[in-house]
């Protein structure tokens, strides 16, 4: 398979958010002339509010409101000066109060995102390294990426995986000045905690280790003076910890803060700090509100407020404990996450709860993996026991209905989150469809298969029999594939859907650019399976083209889609695969909304290239039908080289020729890390050499018939399509003989000679193929991943 292009992250997020917006659960507007915190008005309905991040309800505290109003009267709506020159008159008091809270020097920032952008590049030196928890907030990851321009290495570990962290520490302990580990104190989606005490023990073991905690969701509701979860564990701030908190969210005001007890580092950050210098300062009303809140935090009132919130959290936990709802993390934070698995189930569940009078947040990609969609519920002091109890009752009633309506089960949800199901509910109905799954093509009727799948690529019945011979019973795992052949029929035995699936080992960086692949390949010299994953995919890594027959006009066409996805998810569970891939779709596909709803994200593949040979008599006739520009390309860039070479089509090579062909293919594979897959088994070429439907188009320098400089490995698909599947070339002679272009031309000539009507030209070098008359078609794949770790890690590595 050709390399799937690394997806445009923003385009993917845009598609997911657009889908959620169309379902009425995202980008909503609150309504009404006032807001109390307990209820929120949306779509002309008053809903109990379970989506706030103001856990203590201080944003409605009269002391903060009065202070803000007075500040506007005294100083205006803003103080339009950079803090580097002069701060508004209220700043000094705020800084003194927050410093008293933390018992450490603090820096006030406009917000946490700008704060990270200012602090991280100032704190991290060029001789340092950054290690990110892969669930650390996007704003921290984004700020860390700025250091790539200074060649600071950025690593990533799986969430809260201290063993993996220590491996990274050992890697850098003798080469880097400081090793920065960046994590959240409380994670914003699941509400789980960083293992602060265990991390401090690692800090004792590795003196170079520095910690950067984003504890904005731990602020105010826990800890002495409401200084948050991290400091509640640390008791006092050590010099090797930078701690971010927020004046927004639970604090009830606006802005963010950095606490730093290392005075030298503190002065370095405060003196400049990028956005800390050039961003506008907080408005007087915000500073005044923060002062009022800080005074509450420094009084006994904060502990009364914390206690009231804890009663509500305990109440919600107690009600949840009597249900079978899939609570993803059991903890004492005000953040709860009920998994729904598929986005469309999440949409359904959120809308049902809104109809019952409850507002909750949807947790969706990129905050969580798409298949880990869920409902994020936050508890605040505004919530009363009666509505907390009513919310749990509504969830318990509507959750199974949302699952049923979106064709899923509790088992599928629990599997998506790696949880043990509390109950079993049986299988989903297959809508009366007849589903036939075979493990070998030999068990599939040849005529039936070819009636739907011949003429597409190297996967007619004979082609798949060939693939099974090559990719089974090998000594290494990347050369051993599991095959499944799926035929879905209606009650009258009419075929609705046919495809084949493979379970195989993929390199994760097949989705990344060449620079990333080169960096990863150096690590694979010691660990050959570094960043590799087992994948269940339509088609295979060997084949290209439209691997799927689907009758979109059939009344049960969508039911067939749902059954195929279920089959692939069952295989993923059976094989413990990390990813599901459906591929080779055109951009405007009726599958799009259905696949997005099932937790797939769309990525763009390389363009597909097809050559149409209908009514073509010979090669000259074909060339005459090209555009004038393309004919000029032929005359200038290809024709002169025809006199320098000899071309021979070989059905069966000598042993000496086969050795050369293997070497030439290996040269192309090794030089193309933009197409970074595992090489193929040695026996592939010998199997091709004895198979009647494979042949080799070979190119030799004129007068040197013993020296092959280029080869096209071609498959003849059931007399319907010619498939130049792979290429081999001598790169040292590429320019001298224009080998690649010659092979493209000779492939067209050979297909015409054999009487084929179409050539499946594959997915690479579409620009060159287009110049020889190929039709270029945009193609897309849909990915469903077990988690975001690999994709986020590759994103971090881009540009390093």
From TrEMBL:
Domain of life: Bacteria
Assigned keywords, A-Z: Aminotransferase, Coiled coil, Transferase
Keyword Coiled coil: yes
Residue ranges of domain BioF2-like acetyltransferase in the record: 629-767
Domain Aminotransferase class I/classII large as annotated: residue spans: 49-392
Coiled coil residues, start to end: 554-588
SUPFAM superfamilies (alphabetical): Acyl-CoA N-acyltransferases (Nat), PLP-dependent transferases
Cofactor(s) the protein requires to work: pyridoxal 5'-phosphate
GO molecular function annotations of the record: transaminase activity
A Pfam family assignment: Aminotran_1_2
Name of the protein: Aminotransferase class I/II-fold pyridoxal phosphate-dependent enzyme
Higher taxonomy: Bacteria, Pseudomonadati, Bacteroidota, Flavobacteriia, Flavobacteriales
């Amino acid at each position: 398979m050709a390399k799937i292009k690394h997806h445009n992250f923003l385009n993917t997020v845009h598609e997911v958010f657009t889908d959620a917006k169309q379902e009425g659960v995202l980008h909503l507007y609150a309504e009404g002339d006032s807001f109390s915190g307990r209820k929120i008005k949306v779509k002309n309905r008053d809903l109990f509010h379970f989506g706030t991040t103001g856990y203590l309800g201080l944003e409605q505290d009269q002391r903060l409101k009065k202070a803000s109003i007075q500040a506007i009267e005294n100083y205006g709506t803003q103080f339009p000066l950079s803090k580097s020159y002069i701060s508004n008159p209220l700043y000094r008091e705020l800084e003194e109060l927050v410093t008293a809270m933390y018992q450490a020097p603090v820096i006030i920032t406009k917000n946490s995102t700008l704060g990270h952008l200012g602090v991280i590049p100032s704190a991290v030196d060029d001789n340092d390294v950054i290690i990110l928890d892969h669930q650390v907030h996007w704003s921290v990851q984004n700020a860390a990426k700025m250091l790539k321009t200074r060649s600071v290495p950025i690593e990533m570990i799986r969430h809260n995986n201290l063993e993996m962290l220590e491996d990274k520490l050992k890697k850098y302990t003798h080469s880097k000045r400081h090793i920065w580990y960046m994590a959240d104190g409380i994670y914003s989606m699941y509400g789980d905690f960083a293992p602060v005490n265990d991390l401090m023990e690692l800090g004792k073991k590795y003196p170079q280790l520095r910690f950067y905690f984003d504890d904005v969701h731990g602020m105010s509701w826990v800890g002495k003076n409401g200084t948050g979860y991290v400091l509640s564990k640390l008791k006092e701030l050590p010099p090797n910890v930078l701690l971010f908190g927020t004046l927004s969210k639970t604090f009830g005001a606006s802005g963010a803060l950095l606490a730093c007890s290392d005075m030298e580092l503190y002065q370095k950050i405060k003196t400049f700090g990028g956005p800390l210098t050039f961003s506008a300062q907080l408005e007087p009303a915000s500073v005044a509100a923060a002062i009022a809140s800080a005074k509450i935090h420094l009084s006994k009132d904060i502990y009364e407020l914390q206690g009231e919130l804890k009663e509500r959290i305990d109440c919600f936990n107690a009600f949840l404990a009597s249900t079978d709802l899939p609570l993803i993390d059991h903890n004492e934070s005000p953040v709860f996450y009920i998994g729904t698995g598929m986005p469309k189930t999440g949409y359904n569940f959120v809308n049902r709860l809104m109809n019952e009078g409850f507002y909750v947040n949807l947790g969706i990609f990129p905050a969580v993996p798409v298949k880990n969609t869920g409902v994020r519920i936050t508890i605040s002091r505004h919530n009363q026991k009666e509505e907390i109890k009513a919310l749990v009752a509504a969830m318990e009633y509507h959750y199974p209905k949302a699952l049923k309506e979106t064709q899923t089960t509790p088992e599928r949800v629990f599997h998506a989150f790696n949880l043990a199901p509390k109950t079993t509910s049986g299988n989903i109905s297959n809508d009366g469809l007849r589903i036939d799954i075979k493990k070998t093509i030999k068990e599939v009727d040849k005529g039936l298969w070819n009636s739907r799948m011949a003429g597409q690529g190297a996967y007619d019945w004979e082609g798949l029999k060939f693939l099974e011979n090559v990719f089974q019973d090998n000594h290494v795992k990347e050369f051993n594939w599991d095959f499944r052949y799926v035929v879905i029929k209606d009650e009258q035995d009419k075929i609705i859907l046919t495809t084949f699936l493979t379970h195989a080992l993929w390199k994760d960086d097949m989705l990344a650019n060449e620079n990333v692949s080169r960096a990863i390949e150096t690590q694979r010299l010691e660990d050959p399976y570094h960043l590799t994953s087992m994948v269940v995919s339509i088609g295979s890594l060997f084949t290209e083209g439209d691997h799927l027959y689907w009758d979109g006009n059939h009344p049960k066409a969508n039911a067939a889609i749902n059954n195929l996805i279920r089959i692939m998810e069952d295989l993923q569970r059976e094989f413990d695969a990390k990813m599901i891939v459906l591929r080779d779709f055109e951009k405007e596909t009726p599958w799009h909304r259905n696949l997005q709803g099932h937790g797939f994200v769309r990525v763009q593949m390389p363009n597909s290239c097809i050559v149409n040979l209908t009514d073509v008599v010979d090669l000259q006739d074909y060339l005459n039908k090209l555009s004038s520009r393309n004919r000029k390309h032929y005359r200038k860039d290809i024709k002169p080289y025809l006199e320098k070479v000899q071309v021979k089509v070989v059905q069966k090579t000598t042993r000496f020729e086969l050795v050369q062909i293997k070497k030439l293919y290996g040269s192309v594979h090794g030089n193309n890390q933009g197409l970074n897959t595992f090489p193929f088994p040695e026996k592939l070429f010998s199997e091709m050499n004895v198979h009647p439907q494979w042949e080799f188009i070979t190119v030799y320098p004129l007068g040197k018939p013993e020296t092959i400089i280029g080869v096209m490995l071609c498959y003849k698909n059931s007399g319907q399509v010619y498939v130049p599947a792979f290429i081999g070339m001598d790169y040292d002679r590429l320019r001298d003989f224009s080998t690649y272009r010659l092979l493209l031309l000779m492939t067209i000539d050979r297909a015409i000679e054999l009487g084929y009507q179409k050539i499946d030209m594959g997915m690479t070098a579409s620009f060159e193929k287009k110049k020889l008359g190929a039709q270029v078609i945009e193609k897309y794949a849909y990915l469903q991943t077990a988690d975001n770790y690999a994709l986020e890690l590759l994103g971090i590595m881009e540009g390093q």
